[in-house]
């Protein structure tokens, strides 16, 4: 019996050591790949942290890929009012476009959802990508206003790295967005040149709808259409 207990303890210790080794290995891989943090002049920055000394420029932040992305010098837009608190941001490659230059002012709403204070916005826009379906490095932020939210993303447009016109997807998930006592709520995207796109969403009974959506209003027993930002209803 004593030998069995001793064997069980040895197995348990071995299991714990294996888990610890895997954790250390994962952490080392993260550091080697530069995932989850950036290092500049021996200072470590977490994802979405500002890196004020990078290239002597302002509005430079640490992206989730481990790269530092900045506002371009010629851009007129300032990111001083934008934050990334309580927000998750992801980006992805969609497809290449057969054109010479991207339409940087284009921004299309793909999907929008709101539940329990979480606002999720999926959009697509044109940019420059690398070869092998490589989306440019990006970092997302938002600005919450009295009657709406403005989304934005800093995008690396280094043509030495990205030279093919493409369509990319962005997903913003912002926590603690309150729609209580609001009669209107706008959702917009502002690109890094200052161009604004209003997605023309509708707010009805605490829910958000995309422009063109049909929905039933149970309070008035009506079928409604979102003609952002207005809502038109017909009684059943």
Cα-atom radius of gyration: 23 Å
End-to-end gap:
77 Å
In percent, how helical is the residue content? Answer: 10-25%
Task: Return residue spans where pLDDT drops below 50 for at least 5 consecutive residues.
Answer: 24-35
Strand content: 35-45%
Enumerate how many helices there are, as a single number. Answer: 1
Query: Mind describing the biggest β-sheet?
Result: 4 strands, antiparallel
> What is the global morphology?
globular
SSE ordering: HEEEEEEEEEEEEEEEEE
> Which secondary-structure class do the elements indicate?
mainly beta
Lateral strand order in the biggest sheet? 5-10-7-6
Q: How do you describe this structure in short?
A:
The chain has 236 residues and is mainly beta. It is built from 1 helix and 17 strands.
């Amino acid at each position: 019996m004593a030998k069995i207990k001793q064997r069980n303890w040895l197995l348990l210790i071995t299991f714990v050591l294996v888990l610890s080794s895997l954790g250390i290995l994962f952490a080392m891989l993260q550091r080697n790949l530069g995932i989850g943090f950036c290092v500049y002049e021996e200072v470590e920055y977490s994802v979405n942290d500002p890196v004020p000394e990078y290239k002597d420029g302002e509005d430079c932040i640490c992206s989730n890929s481990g790269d530092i992305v900045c506002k371009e010098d010629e851009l007129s837009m300032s990111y001083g009012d934008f934050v990334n608190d309580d927000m998750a941001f992801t980006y992805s490659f969609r497809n290449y476009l057969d054109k010479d230059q991207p339409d940087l002012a284009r921004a299309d709403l793909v999907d929008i959802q709101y539940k329990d204070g979480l606002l999720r916005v999926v959009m697509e826009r044109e940019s420059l990508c690398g070869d092998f379906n490589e989306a440019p490095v990006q970092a997302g932020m938002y600005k919450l206003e009295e009657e709406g939210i403005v989304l934005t993303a800093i995008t690396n447009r280094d043509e030495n790295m990205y030279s093919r016109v493409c369509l990319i997807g962005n997903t913003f998930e912002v926590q603690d967005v309150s729609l209580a006592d609001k009669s209107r709520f706008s959702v917009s995207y502002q690109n890094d040149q200052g161009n604004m796109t209003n997605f023309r969403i509708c707010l009805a009974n605490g829910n958000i709808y995309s422009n063109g959506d049909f929905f039933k209003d149970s309070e008035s027993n009506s079928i409604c259409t979102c003609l952002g930002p207005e809502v038109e209803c017909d009684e059943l």
